[in-house]
Write a structure and sequence with these properties.
With about 190 residues, the chain is an all-beta fold. It contains no helices and 14 strands. It has strands spanning about 10-15, 20-25, 35, 45-50, 85-90, 95-100, 105-110, 115-120, 125-130, 135-140, 150-155, 160-165, 170-175, 190-194. The radius of gyration is 40 Å and the shape is rod-shaped.
Length: about 190
């Protein structure tokens, strides 16, 4: 209320020859840095320059989930685990690297004479060939925790194989011919899971 307004809308109070007076604004470029494109004049508006935002210009903790486009975080942007084979999982609400527990406890191939051809290290305590076509496998303690472990069997050749008994640390199988149902020795395989 102390300044007498201009009679013309849009004028600004400026100094001309040392005297204050109302006048039309004078267009002039705005001084900018490399982070700003344009000079503010008509036809060349001010704009944020490409690649102008640096880490120093982003407040810590301010890049939120909504700021990142879907499917744009690549494996190169995720800090890898120091242990090969681990997967990123959630534990108590926090992301962390962890080893995926395998349900497979062990695998093995048993020769027809009851010897171990190949097996998971430390799995088998002994293999006993009871009679022709019948084998008992005694496992080392700690590989399975229940008598209800899953036992998968397969046999080499045109034979049938099946479990006849299963205990905490052992199982017994029989192998029979498909034609005569007679017990027969053969190479066979098993997988144990829990």
């Amino acid at each position: 209320n102390k300044i007498n307004p201009s009679a013309t809308d849009g004028q600004v109070l400026t100094t001309v020859a040392g005297n204050a007076q109302w006048a039309a604004p004078t267009a002039g470029a705005v001084q900018t840095t490399a982070a700003i494109d344009g000079d503010g004049l008509a036809g060349n508006p001010l704009d944020l320059a490409d690649n102008a935002v640096t880490t120093a210009k982003i407040a810590d903790g301010q890049v939120q989930t909504a700021d990142i486009a879907d499917a744009n975080v690549t494996e190169n942007k995720i800090n890898p685990s120091a242990t090969d084979g681990q997967v990123l999982t959630t534990v108590a609400g926090n992301a962390q690297w962890a080893t995926v527990p395998s349900p497979v406890k062990g695998i093995a191939k048993i020769n027809s004479i009851g010897t171990i051809a190949q097996a998971t290290s430390g799995l088998i305590n002994s293999v006993v060939s009871n009679i022709t076509g019948e084998y008992t496998v005694n496992l080392n303690a700690g590989f399975v925790t229940t008598t209800n472990f899953i036992l998968q069997l397969s046999v080499l050749g045109d034979y049938r194989i099946y479990a006849t008994g299963q205990g905490t640390n052992s199982f017994t199988i029989q192998i029979k011919t498909g034609q005569t149902n007679a017990l027969v020795n053969a190479d066979w395989y098993f997988t144990i899971s829990e």
